[in-house]
Each structure stands twice: as structure tokens, then as C-alpha cells.
Amino acid sequence: MIIVEFAVVPLGTGSTSLSKYVSEACRVVKDSGVRFTITPMSTVIEVKNLDEAFKVIKDAHEAVLRMGVERVSTSIKIDDRRDKDRKMEDKVRAVKY
User: CA 68, CA 87: separation in Å to the nearest integer?
Assistant: First the structure.
């Protein structure tokens, strides 16, 4: 599995609260059917290939734009490990103290 962390951030909303935009982006991720987890600062997904990842991220990005936002900044981190199959939980378990 490829593990991808991303954050969709609307800019210029006129408010310090972004939860309604983040909630909409997360709804899109949930509807995609990929495994995901939400963290305080980003969303992490597990996908089989990068095309699937980019589709989910694009859909979340576009969903925020459809809410009337004129500018969105989306950041992406990709962990594409090919020597073994692992999940999000495996990465966390490997560094637990």
C-alpha cells in the first residue's frame, strides 16, 4: 500500500475557522472508499497506486473550491515503499515507545 498524507487548506475565507471546509473534504475522502484516518493537521489515506491517491486528493481539493473559495493550497506527502506491504498502523507501531 502507498500511504499518503495531505491537507487541503482554503485561503481567504474571512474566518479563522476552517472546519466546514475540512469536513467537506473529509466527506469526499470517505465517499471514495479508501482507508483513511484524520489527524489534527491532515488526512492520511492508503491506496494501491498513485492514480487513486491523486484522484481522491483532486476530488477533495475541488470540493472545497465548489464551496465558493477562490484559493486553495493542498500539500501532499507520499510514502511509496515497495519492499513490503504495510498499513498506516504498522508505521505507528514501528515507532511506539
Answer: 35
Over residues 68-95, mean pLDDT: 92
Report the alpha-carbon distance of residue 39 to residue 3 in Å, rounded: 14
Output the nine-digit C-alpha cell for 50.
498513485
The span from the CA of 62 to the CA of 44, in Å, is 18
pLDDT, tens only, 5-17? 999 999 999 998 9
Instruction: Determine if residue 14 is left, alpha or beta; phi over 0 gives left, psi from -120 to 50 gives alpha, anything else beta.
Output: left
Question: Which domains can be identified in the chain, with CATH numbers?
Answer: 2-95 (3.30.70.930)
Kindly report the backbone phi and psi dihedral angles of residue 65, in degrees, each rounded to the nearest multiple of 5, phi listed first. -60, -40
What's the whole-model pTM score?
Answer: 0.91
Chain-centroid distance of CA 85 in Å reads: 20
